[in-house]
Design brief:
The protein is α/β, with parallel strands linked by helices and 557 residues long. Helix content is 58%, strand content 9%.
């Protein structure tokens, strides 16, 4: 099970909860409350990793390397009483939470040291409780939640109390030491604390780039021996890493260099523990809680159906045969990094057509209100098509319509009188829709929209062919209305694959955002939703149907 599979498993259970919730509508408040509590457990589930280390060990550098972005400030001595959490956010920002009833404030990441260091906040005179750093990093989006405890070495008793207060919420502890002086007395104290609370410890020796291979082996052997002495059978071998080299390798997109830095092995161990240990236990426990609800009314057919689905889920979990039944994208799409959907532009073809349409209608409604020639041309063309007439109505004033439309109405009146005379002498089919409304190629704005569509597709295809990799990566989210036309114009198999794989990745990520939002909404925890998740519904409709007020007829009406 990987992070995506685990998340899909939760999505599958959320679907079963919705079915259970629908069936329980007439069961009374106690049953409904139990189901809401289960939604809350799903919505608030995350991977809590407490990160502890003495000042100067490279904690912030290590977190930067894990996240894959160089944004967390390094080289600052934080207060012992302030915890910094690092979580997912659609845009980069920091939320400062205070002691007491003070409202939280939002600051930039560059301002963070002013609130969490002894130099700029001596004795924590600002009353800061926690600093929540939100970053648009993929590992955080998948559920990792870093709890960065203050650097050791200043007031050990106070620091121990601060760390101890977070231990019940932590799935594991990552203790960071370094080769220059491995395992200080303060770090030994943290290990003893972890042993007391039975928390899994991942020990990291950072700065392996500063020592020889022999020194590395000697340092690892010493630390491993001490871990065995303090933690006993639960101790795991320490990890040797270079956070500096690991971050540089990630920024370069060099997987082999990431492996050599030691970061790949550390990440694999963290994910394996959190998924195979804690999260399998969470899923199994959650299933049992759902089954407990279904047992409240075993005679209910809908409850029984949910119970069968959940029991089948449990069998797959125990058999390790793949848990989630939700559709998953092809491997190529699932590995494409599309960045934050907050920064993804809407369909650029739609935007061009929308811009051209708006300019046309602004000019058209003005000319109708001032020019007799324009009014006559409007009447001869039988106006615009129905869709564009409605769009014109949103811009035109009642006076503009009063001045611009009489000529058209008179022309239509003449047409209807002619049809009436034909009907009076027994002529069949005296009135066709095209007699009173323009067809696709007769509406001036329809023709302009189709020309703009063709020109936009040709321009974008030409740009993509000139700079395949860069342009494809910066392409907007092309809507499903216009994607087939763009693909047909590419005329290059490799480029077509790149564009379609990226679009598939965008849609897959959007599907995840929709599912996350639905779960948090059902849990009445909408405040936990990121901006991407909150806007996912609107973005979905735009990707499926294009932007509003964009009308390009597909065929002659």
């Amino acid at each position: 099970m990987d992070l995506r599979e685990y998340e899909n498993a939760k999505f599958e259970l959320a679907e079963q909860l919705r079915a259970l919730s629908e069936a329980a509508k007439d069961k009374g408040d106690p049953t409904g409350e139990k189901i809401r509590d289960l939604f809350v457990r799903l919505a608030e589930d995350r991977f809590n990793l407490a990160i502890v280390g003495r000042f100067g060990r490279g904690k912030s550098s290590l977190m930067n390397a894990l996240i894959g972005v160089e944004r967390l400030p390094t080289g600052i001595l934080p207060l012992t009483s302030v915890i910094t959490t690092v979580v997912y956010g659609s845009t980069e920002k920091v939320i400062i939470h205070y002691e007491g009833r003070h409202l939280a404030t939002e600051i930039t990441l560059d301002e963070l040291p002013q609130f969490i260091t002894q130099r700029t906040n001596p004795g924590n005179v600002r009353g800061v409780r926690t600093a929540e750093v939100q970053l648009p990093a993929e590992i955080l989006r998948r559920g990792f939640h870093f709890v960065d405890t203050p650097g050791l070495g200043s007031a050990i008793a106070e620091n121990t109390r601060t760390t101890e207060s977070f231990l019940p919420e932590a799935d594991a502890m990552l203790v960071v030491t370094s080769y220059d002086s491995p395992l200080s007395e303060e770090e030994f104290a943290v290990l003893r604390l972890a042993a007391r609370y039975d928390r899994r410890v991942f020990m990291v020796l950072n700065k392996q780039d500063t020592v020889t291979q022999a020194q590395r082996e000697e340092g690892l052997a010493y630390v491993n021996e001490q871990l065995q002495r303090v933690l006993g059978p639960r101790a795991s071998p320490p990890f040797s890493v270079s956070a500096r080299d690991g971050l540089a390798a990630k920024l370069e997109g060099n997987p082999e260099a990431v492996r050599q830095s030691g970061m790949a092995g550390l990440e694999e161990a963290l994910v394996s523990f959190l998924l195979e240990g804690k999260r399998r236990a969470f899923l199994a426990s959650f299933c049992e809680r759902v089954l407990d609800v279904t047992r409240l009314d075993p005679s209910d057919a809908a409850f029984a159906a949910v119970a069968l689905e959940v029991q089948e889920f449990l069998h797959r979990l125990e058999a390790d045969s793949g848990v989630a039944h939700l559709p998953r994208p092809h491997l190529a799409a699932s590995t494409v990094d599309v960045g934050s959907l907050q920064e993804l532009e809407p369909c650029e073809i739609c935007q061009r057509i929308q811009s051209v349409s708006f300019d046309f209608l602004c000019r058209y409604q003005y000319e109708l209100s001032v020019s007799t020639q324009s009014q006559n041309r409007h009447a001869q063309a039988r106006g615009l098509c129905v869709t564009h007439t409605r769009q014109l109505a949103q811009l035109a004033s009642p006076r503009g319509v009063a001045v611009g439309y009489p000529a058209l109405l008179e022309a239509l009146s003449t047409t209807l009188e002619r049809a009436a005379r034909a009907a009076s002498v027994g002529v069949q089919d005296v009135l066709d829709r095209k007699d009173v409304l323009p067809g696709t190629y007769e509406c001036a704005l329809c023709r302009l929209c189709m020309d703009t569509l063709h020109e936009s597709v040709v321009d974008i295809a030409r740009s993509l062919r000139q700079d395949t990799k860069h342009q494809a990566a910066s392409l907007s989210g092309i809507c499903m209305l216009h994607l087939p036309a763009l693909v047909a114009a590419l005329e290059d198999a490799e480029l077509t694959e790149r564009v379609l794989t990226r679009e598939a990745a965008i849609l897959s990520r959007l599907a995840d955002d929709l599912r996350r939002y639905a779960t948090k909404h059902d849990a009445i925890r909408r405040q936990l939703a990121s901006a991407e998740e909150t806007e996912a519904a609107d973005r979905t409709l735009k990707l499926i149907a294009g932007l509003a007020n964009v009308h390009v007829p597909w065929s002659e009406e």
